[in-house]
Amino acid sequence: MSLESVWNNCLNFIKDNIQDQAYKTWFEPIQPVKLDDNVLSIQVPSKFFYEWLEEHYVKLLKIALNKELGKDAKLVYVIKMENSFGSTKSFTEKIPSDYKPKVESQKVEGSSSYFKTELTNPFVIPGIKNLKIDSQLNPNYNFNNFLEGDSNRLARSAGYAVSNRPGGTSFNPLLIFGGVGLGKTHLANAIGINIKQKFPDKTVLYISAEKFTQQYIESVKKNNRNDFIHFYQLIDVLIIDDVQFFSGKSGTQDVFFHIFNHLHQNGKQLVLTSDKAPVDMQEIEQRLLSRFKWGLSAELQTPDYETRISIVKNKLNRDGVEMDEEIIFYVAKHIKTNVRELEGAIISLMAQSSFNRKNITIDLAKVIVEKFVKNTKKEISIDHIQKVVSDYFQMDVSTLQSKTRKRHIVQARQLAMFFSKKFTKASLASIGTKIGHRDHATVLHACKTVDNLAFTDKQFRKYVEDLNKKFSD
Ligand code: ADP
Ligand code: MG
């Protein structure tokens, strides 16, 4: 009886008795290392892995082993430790485990201080018996109060579809992108909450990319990167907010890449949010970017007037506050860049009126809206930029957008693209779409050309300066 044949027979037996996915996750990574009489040693990738096996598959392992090696069979786990740089294996630690009924349910005897160290992830309540993961979802952000409009219809319905069949749609990953305050975090939470309601057994985790990064760094410091990875590989629905935060952080990107692959391969759902479309993300590795595009990228745009009105009404309704329609229309009309500001204006309106015991009047609304609008005045729209540039060169906006290669028109168009990049938060792709349906590469090229020409061509520099002044007034 060789080591390999014993272990292979065990595996065949185990394979027949558990789900394919579980087999792949928990048994394929195991290496048989030694066979001494009736003692089989197997190497597992981490302490966490070992604990998981003991917790969930100890009976199965025991039966398999008894069949192969008789009823006195014993199993020894060897835990493979990686050092913090993940290159060489620094040491191994052996934990004996035997199968006398008493020992079975207990953590392994003689396991020493090793098991007193806590698991890395703060969301795991330590102790194997109650491996519970707090989803970290915000219950205030659900589908009911995420109002639908043209600006969010695609993202919202994709999110809804995903929550009906997590991992089962082609929207995997689902990447929700859009500017600040447009509802990315809200929608991402709504998806998680809906899944939790429909599938209470699924492990859902919401985490910001920033927190994920901190945890990862911590795990490297504490020498338990593997535990970190295994923890994340257990999640059924992983929601990571603001993945643009991974920019330039290659270690975190690397570890996320592996987690992503594992989850995706196993049919688990990934939901990501970002303030940019994948094409505009910078300092994110290509292999990750290409995976972001595997599923669906859905944009949250700025809500139109009707949607803004319904968002305001809904908020007032929930807070039990009444307000004249005139005032609602006024606020919705003037605050248009993002939903957070819209809510902010309504909140200060309510606060002002209750502090001063005044009714909410249109005059009060004007004062407050003024404050909000002033703060956001810097945000010029792409349409406005096209208009100003066209006027300056005395042409129509449609000429500026046309396919012609006439030099002065091309230059006007490139200037419009350049200023859109400079003064708006729009992505290269959406600037291109708005300025005559060009792609992001064209916009990028335009920005570079303007930079160069402003440097080398005196006349052109004058255009840039004049226009700059117009936008800064
Ligand atoms: P982001 O994460 O994109 O910066 P948030 O999800 O934090 O934006 O949204 C900002 C605020 O606007 C939140 O209070 C959120 O509830 C609200 N909000 C955004 N979109 C909607 C919507 N469609 N319906 C209702 N509230 C919304
Ligand atoms: Mg957010």
Task: Explain how this protein is built.
This protein is α/β, with parallel strands linked by helices and 473 residues long. It has 4 domains: 3-114, DnaA, N-terminal domain (GMP Synthetase, Chain A, domain 3), CATH 3.30.300; 143-300, P-loop containing nucleotide triphosphate hydrolases (Rossmann fold, 3-Layer(aba) Sandwich); 305-375, Helicase, Ruva Protein, domain 3, CATH 1.10.8; 382-472, Orthogonal Bundle (Chromosomal Replication Initiator Protein Dnaa, Chain: A), CATH 1.10.1750. Helices cover 53% and strands 11% of the residues. It contains 20 helices and 9 strands. It has helices at 3-17, 20-26, 47-69, 101-104, 153-164, 184-198, 209-221, 225-233, 250-265, 286-292, 305-319, 325-334, 339-355, 362-376, 382-392, 397-401, 407-423, 428-434, 440-456, 458-472; strands at 31-36, 39-44, 74-82, 89-97, 174-177, 204-208, 237-241, 269-274, 296-299. The strands form 2 sheets. A 5-stranded parallel β-sheet has the order 6-7-8-5-9, sandwiched between helices. A 4-stranded mixed β-sheet has the order 1-2-3-4. Strand 3 and strand 4 form a beta hairpin. The longest helix is centred in the N-terminal third of the chain and has 23 residues, at 47-69. It binds adenosine-5'-diphosphate (ADP) and magnesium ion (MG). Magnesium ion binds next to helix 6.
